[in-house]
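ok trying this again, last paste got cut off
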Amino acid sequence: MAQYTTIVHEAYLDLSDGIDSFRYINLSGILYLRQAITPTGFSGAEGVDWNDIEDYPSSGGGIWRIGVRSLFWVMDCTITIGAGFAGTENIDWENYEQHQLP
């Protein structure tokens, strides 16, 4: 069974392994991956308490989802604003990135 978190404009998803903390945040359709570098983390200042480590340009629709599907970690992005993830893959949304889970 697939499980996802959808990240709309200005929403975020925090992830941590108990040591490192990361945040995916959607700003104007671009998804940024940030890493906390001090205990203040994402409440602090960029370059001091956290850094952007990667960014992903939108496929057109600007809504993202991150989750697990068929034993893969996946990151999907909407292509169209209308149907989005309720629509058809590669028409309304695309699999932007995927990685096999151990």
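PB: full thing came through this time. The chain has one domain: 3-100.
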